[in-house]
């Protein structure tokens, strides 16, 4: 992910590992630490320790603050969403490889479509 200059002219932008950026994107998408751990096939403590390292790098006390700081630092793009069909489509549109969260969201979306086709019910994109 491209990291722009700090909008507030503060300290240097910390360099984050891809997993740390993904952790932020998943938090921003509303996932809990437990859900992130499950998606990664990690123990919850493993996901938590990534979160701790991330919060330290961002100087944030909570996950909520970490997401906010990441937006301020332009690590997260607030105009984009991840983890669902729309996020997946946005990656495709930009010619990017979709991130893991968006691939997962797309799979859930397709499962929902298939289920809807089978039962003739309305589309339910929740798995
Ligand atoms: Zn994505």
Which ligands appear in the coordinates? Answer: zinc ion
Tell me the major beta sheet.
none
Tally of DSSP helical segments: 6
Q: The CATH topology of the largest domain, please?
A: Arc Repressor Mutant, subunit A
Count of discrete structural domains: 2
Average pLDDT works out at: 87
- Please give the number of β-strands: 0
Please identify which CATH superfamily of the largest domain we are dealing with.
Answer: Winged helix-like DNA-binding domain superfamily/Winged helix DNA-binding domain
Q: Given this structure, which CATH class of the largest domain is correct?
A: Mainly Alpha
Distance between the termini: 28 Å
Outline type: globular
The H-and-E topology, N to C, reads as HHHHHH
| Proportion in helices | 55-70%
Keywords:
single chain, mainly alpha, Arc Repressor Mutant, subunit A, 127 residues, 6 helices, binds zinc ion
What's this model, at a glance?
With 127 residues, the protein is an all-alpha fold. The chain has helices at 18-28, 33-40, 44-58, 63-72, 85-93, 100-119. Bound molecules: zinc ion (ZN).
